[in-house]
Design a protein that fits this description.
Layout: H1 3-16, E1 19-34, E2 39-55, E3 59-63, H2 70-77, E4 85-90, E5 93-94, H3 100-107, E6 110-113, H4 127-138, H5 143-156, H6 173-185, E7 191-195, H7 203-220, E8 223-228, H8 231-237, E9 240-245, E10 248-254, H9 255-260, H10 265-272, E11 323-326, E12 329-331
Parallel strand pairs: 3-8, 3-9, 6-7, 7-8
Antiparallel strand pairs: 1-2, 1-4, 4-5, 9-10, 10-12, 11-12
Helix pairs in contact: 4-5, 4-6, 5-6, 6-7
The structure holds adenosine-5'-diphosphate and magnesium ion.
Length: 341
């Protein structure tokens, strides 16, 4: 089958698939305190009401500039930090308020691969023990069984069985990320959140790690939430894409459609920044002025209005809702809201 046919087929299959993760109106606010008594004076609205669902076996790419709340969203989904509001349903179970042993049990089904393979691996631990730690925590396997299993995992991610006895500093960035991936795979999870897994790596190494993640997805039946700050990285990985801006989800849709016809002005700016290999298809680059505003004091109305090239006066006042504007495409922008036209 041609690549096109395969991707069409996968897309059709995805819409028939079951939902693995459902997130409804999720918020994560970090309190801001001041003074001697550490009185609360405000909130950092890192994630401010996002709703999304992931189908079994899909890769959902979450993109947005640095500071938009992607990592916080990922960490909150996995219950690594408590949500402020909202609901998280994983494989049919509401995990929003799980505690203690129930949370521990749920957690073995989801794992995270972190951005910085230098900082995320304990440098004092031997690779074998870094990778078998989750297995030791969750299973009663013997030392010998653990060793065999870890060596197999190391080989699967492109390392050698002997690497079991080495320490993280003996590896390159790409190899360290492979160690992180082996560790995430150890418990055979259903969902992996990969938080900018290749951003810290040399461009020449990036595609090797991305290809590895792709192969593992089919082999281990994984669902991915793949976080990146630019669209070119998620382009090759994702089936669907969600675009975040300042704690909000502004657009969700199929990858190809988001690339070919971005609807939200923020998505349009992000896609215009992707290098175009064909010089005949030159497109206009939309440069966004300034930085992402502070989530402690976000703009009123549509949070993007201060940087939006097509903002209208009402955008200062009305908060746009994420709505289905055509099949399988949701956008939060007043340009597409009939009642606000
Ligand atoms: P991204 O991953 O998209 O770069 P983050 O989720 O890391 O964004 O951060 C979103 C916002 O939340 C940022 O303004 C950041 O400074 C803030 N933030 C993240 N973690 C914390 C924390 N533990 N306490 C307070 N503010 C935080
Ligand atoms: Mg981040």
């Amino acid at each position: 089958m041609s690549e096109q046919v395969v991707s069409e087929k996968k897309k059709k299959d995805l819409y028939n698939k079951e939902v693995l993760l459902e997130v409804k109106n999720l918020k994560k606010y970090y309190p801001v305190t001041a003074g001697f008594f550490q009185r609360k004076v405000g909130d950092v609205k890192a994630v401010d009401d996002i709703t999304l669902s992931l189908k079994k076996g899909e890769t959902f790419g979450l993109v947005g500039e640095s500071g938009c709340g992607k990592s916080t969203a990922g960490r909150t989904l996995l219950r690594l930090t408590d949500p402020t509001e909202g609901q998280i349903i994983f494989d049919g179970e509401d995990i929003t308020n799980l505690r203690g042993s129930k949370l521990r049990k749920a957690r073995r089904n989801f794992q995270m691969v972190f951005q910085d393979p230098y900082a995320s691996l304990n440098s004092k631990m031997m690779v074998g023990h870094l990778v078998d730690e989750p297995l030791r925590n969750y299973t009663n396997k013997s030392h010998k069984e653990l060793r065999e299993e870890v060596k197999k995992l190391l080989k699967r991610v492109g390392l050698r069985a002997e690497d079991y006895y080495k320490y993280p500093h003996e590896f390159s960035g790409g190899q360290r990320q492979r160690i992180g991936i082996a560790r995430a795979l150890a418990l055979n999870p259903k969902l992996i959140i990969a938080d900018e897994p290749v951003s810290a790596l040399d461009v020449s190494i990036q595609s090797q790690v991305l290809n590895l993640l792709k192969e593992l997805q089919d082999e281990f039946d994984l669902t991915y939430l793949f976080i990146a700050h630019d669209l070119s990285v998620v382009k090759h990985m994702s089936d669907r894409i969600g675009v975040m801006y300042l704690g909000h989800m502004v657009e969700v849709g199929d990858k190809e459609e988001i690339y070919h016809e971005p609807l939200h002005p923020y998505t349009q700016a992000l896609t215009s920044a992707i290098p175009e290999p064909n010089p005949l298809h030159k497109k206009e680059r939309i440069i966004l002025e300034g930085d992402v505003p502070s989530p402690q004091n976000p703009p009123t109305g549509c949070v993007f209005h201060t940087r939006c090239p097509v903002a209208m006066p009402k955008c200062k006042e009305i908060v746009p809702q994420l709505k289905e504007v055509r099949p399988n495409r949701q956008v939060a922008c007043l340009l597409y809201e009939e009642e606000n036209k």
